[in-house]
Amino acid sequence: MSELRSVLDALAGDDLHGLADGEVLERVALLVAVVNQATAELTRTVRHAETTQAAEHDGLKSMRSWLIGHRRLAPAEASRVIRSGRALEHFPALAAGFAEGAVTAAQVDVVAGAVGERERAQAVEQGIDLAPFDQAWTAVAVEAPHDVLKTAVQAFAAALDPDGPEPDPTEGRRLSIAKHADGSVTGRFDLDAVGGEKVQAAIESIVQASRPKGDDRTRGQQNADALVQLCDNQLAAGTLPTLRTVKPHVVVTLDMDDFADSAASPGAAATGFGARISAARARWLACDGTMSRIVMGPDGLPLDFGRTHRVVPAHIRRAVEQRDGHCVFTGCTAPTHWCDVHHLVHWLHGGETSLHNSALLCERHHTKVHHGFRVERDPGGRWRTWRPDGTEILLAQPLLGPPLLDPPLPDPPTTEVRSRRASPRAVVSVG
User: Fold this and answer.
1) How far apart are CA 385 and CA 405, in angstroms?
2) What is the mean pLDDT of residues 404-428?
């Protein structure tokens, strides 16, 4: 063991900058194989410790609890090592490939997770010899992409009970959402194949429909924005089930003094689900929502509740949609039903709610405009966009001729179209 540590210490002391690209890749490949071999030996040793009840030496009943408590492994990782050790006793070819470094721990877990004790017992009952599958899966693990092995193993597990009832897909679905101190949320979901396909199809449609020029978001960011947009579309459509007698919407409560002040005021506003956001963010939501005024007494009880009214009336929104046609931020073509009506001069600062003072912006670019970017319609009817440093965002220039601008859009005709905002998307209550 001391020799192994010495070798690793020597590797850590190597100067990687002195290696050519090919040498770096060879080193990576070797290290992957070494990690696989080391993990295989860990798995084999843990399995031996489990069968000999070695954890009892430290007063614990299981190797899983020992790995978690003494070596600080995550519970899921400890379970994976235990599960893999038990499975490899029944798959010698896979165990050999693991020990040689050609098979990864994740690949072993694909087999161990799908072909556990119950599935192996079913195979014995049906007279199925696991040896040919062991050889085939090992060959796939060594030669094919990871997903190919998953498909091969899942097909075997399903074939064990071909005549059994089709499982209820809803039983395995899970969605958990955790809220953090700053109001942000993280989540995890588990879906069956069909449910996952539906979610992917919906998100992919929005990702592919909203790819403005110069978009430097990662794929993960695009997916997250698409999920929020999907929910925004549904909230705006007004077709979701009512929530305690009212249509679901975003609620933000903010003191009038903070609302009227131009400062950011972090944490000044509260959302309906308990998150704290800045007054600046609340003013962004108030650009195109509904407003209710509540006067509170010294005892914290409401004394007066004003009538709820829309910041942007439906007829103004229809006119803005007809004139702009899509998000006006340079390079973006997000459709009207994804967009808010932005006040060029905020109504808090005296800007009127009118066609002349309005611009159609998607959520992403509405946020940009409230964080230093600026859009403006020139006398020729073209929308132009400026960065916070004052430079203008222009489309890609042709080889000859002047820089391209978004083409001018005509003023709206008198034909009326249905408004996307038939029901409120955001409510800001001030008191």
Assistant:
1) 10
2) 41
The residue extents of the domains of the chain are 2-159, 243-431
Report yes or no: 91 and 130 within 8 Å, Cβ to Cβ.
yes
Q: How many other CB atoms are there within 10 angstroms of residue 36's CB atom?
A: 22
CB 272 within 8 A of CB 289: no
Q: Which two tokens stand for residue 240?
A: 């979701």
Q: Residue 344 class from Cβ within 10 Å (0-12 exposed, 13-18 middle, 19+ buried)?
A: middle
H or E element that contains 174? strand 174-179
pLDDT one-digit tens code per residue, 20-39: 999 999 999 999 999 999 99
Per the CB < 8 A criterion, the answer to whether 339 and 393 are in contact is no
> Quick check: 309 and 300 in contact, CB under 8 A?
no
Question: Which residues are 253's β-sheet partners?
Answer: 270, 429
The residue assigned the tokens 């006040």 is 343
Which of 364, 325, 329 has the alpha carbon at shortest distance from 344? 329
Instruction: Give ∠ CA 237-241-245 in degrees, rounded to 5.
Output: 110
CA atoms within 13 A on the CB side of 104: 14
What is the amino acid identity at position 8? Answer: L
pTM for the predicted model, two decimal places: 0.49
Query: What does the pLDDT look like over 383-397, one tens digit per residue?
Result: 999 999 999 988 765
358-362 and 383-386 beta bridge pairing: unpaired
Reading the block at residue 191, the tokens are: 């879906």
- Contact between 119 and 81 (Cβ < 8 Å): no
